[in-house]
Amino acid sequence: MGLWTRVRGWRGRSRVAKVDSYMRWTLYVLPVVLPGLGAVGVLADSGLTRPWILAMGGIFTLQGLLGISIFRRSLDHYLWKKPAPWWPLALQGVLFVAAMACMTISFGTYGNEYASTIGLFLWNGSLSVFGPLTLLVGKIRRFVGTCVAVALVLGLGVLAIGAGWKASLALTGSVLGLTLWCVYVVRTSGWMLRVMWELEEAREAQARLAIAEERLRFGRDLHDVLGRNLAVIALKSELAVQLARRGAPAAVDQMIEVQRMAQDSQREVREVVRGYREADLHTELVGARGVLSAADIECRIDDTVGKALPPAVQSVLAWVVREGTTNVLRHADAERCAVRLRVVAGTTAVLVMENNGVREPGRKPESGGGSGLVGLRERLTVLGGTLTYEHRANATFRLTAEVPLEGVLPADADGADGAALPGKAVQGAGLVPVHGGTA
What's the CA gap between 158 and 242, in Å, rounded? Predict the structure, then answer.
């Protein structure tokens, strides 16, 4: 995989995924780089005359390298309940004990020389062992309580063998400090990632629920309109069959009634579909501002002519606003979005939506992942409008809808609800990519 492919893959990630990668690699790198740099510093300063310190730095650096996989699996266990890496973590514990032995020997051999470097080794090397452990334990309070008890026992043990209060307090404080350090760096990072992923899942679930609710509403409206009429049609058709078999003239009257009810049902269904497809431009603009603001996206709306447009134009532009807002939320990590509505030369209504934070600039809207822009094209073709989209500098996406005001279908005409009529020729409209891309 080339560098440019990796860069494009990074740009195509959501903000939550980027933060996840950043925090993960921070945890991966810290236990490797700092002990490694410390060991290199000791080697450059004293050569091979301090083998026990070098051995300690080498062990902690090895722990950091092995800890990359352990950290990854531990985070996956904490976030997604995947299997925990207990056996690799046990190996890390063995290496940690070996590093502690080297530390004890180095203090006995060299005194307090390089004490600060050894402290750097200890603080960052402990992340490779106790950091993943904080992610694997169920209750963090139980983990901290256990570490406090161990620290007190070790302090009392040192005091019991006559090492003095200073040594006892130093050991107890070091154990507690390492515990809180690992909890603060690792467990807090995992907790923040969990919260962000839960919020991301909640937002996706909210969008799915909104779609499901709209489908249920539409299905309920159709059922209310057609349910009673279809039941009556079925009964009258059965009655007409029986009358026809008897040769009764009343069968004709029953079939005329069935025909009338079928025509009424067709008209009512058309009204339901038209009401479902029509959208209010002012309502959609206000809703877009509210939804985007709730997602921490600055939204600026410049509308001075919306209420003066014909109802059919308002309806189709309202759908552009609705679909454009959905694309901003689903396909971009936007910080700002601007909506501008103008009438150019008194003959064309022009709606422009522009946002930043675009991901995956190379994918075309027809290539998968939804048919929102294609659906807008079908609505605009009824009025002879066009839809263009382009990627601009600074990861900016612009969606432009143009609708001619001359020859607009009346608001109550068939097809003015935004759907093309069967068999009706439509010209002069289309989805035109300016520089390629998608919303």
Answer: 104
Answer whether CATH 3.40.50.410 is correct for domain 297-433: no
- The burial of 112, by beta-carbon neighbours within 10 Å (0-12 exposed, 13-18 middle, 19 or more buried), is given as exposed
What gap in Å lies between CA 237 and CA 233, rounded to an integer?
Answer: 6
Alpha helices by DSSP H, listed for 48-139, are 51-80, 86-110, 115-136
Q: Please give the model's pTM, rounded to 2 decimal places.
A: 0.60
DSSP reduced 3-state for 362: coil
Q: What is residue 55's three-state secondary structure? A: helix
Q: What is the pLDDT of residue 203?
A: 78
C-beta separation of 254 from 236 below 8 A: yes
Return the pLDDT at 85: 95
For domain 209-277, give its CATH number from 3.30.565, 1.20.5, 1.10.357, 2.40.10: 1.20.5
Does residue 334 contact residue 356 with C-beta atoms inside 8 Å?
A: yes
pLDDT lower than 50: segments of the chain: 1, 362-370, 409-439
Residue 430 belongs to what H/E stretch?
Answer: none
Q: Do the domains 297-433 and 209-277 match in fold?
A: no
Q: What residues have CB less than 8 Å from 340, skipping those under 6 apart?
A: 302, 303, 351, 352
Q: Collect all residues with Cβ–Cβ distance below 8 Å to 168 and sequence separation of at least 6.
A: 155, 156, 158, 159
CB atoms closer than 10 angstroms to residue 160:
9
Q: Where are the domains of the chain?
A: 3-203, 209-277, 297-433
- What b/e readout covers 237-252, taking b as 16+ CB neighbours within 10 angstroms? eebbeebeeeeeeebe
Find the Cα–Cα–Cα–Cα dihedral 412, 413, 414, 416, rounded to 10°. -80
C-alpha to C-alpha distance for 22 and 67, rounded to whole angstroms: 16
Q: How many angstroms separate the CA atoms of 36 and 428, rounded?
A: 67
The alpha carbon dihedral of 116, 120, 121, 122 has a sign of: positive
Q: Please enumerate, as own/partner, the contacts of 410-416 that have beta carbons within 8 Å and a separation of 24 or more.
A: 410/312, 411/310, 411/311, 411/312, 415/382, 416/311, 416/312, 416/315, 416/382
Q: What is the pLDDT of residues 294-348, one digit of tens each?
A: 777 899 999 878 678 888 899 889 889 988 888 888 778 888 999 999 998 888 9
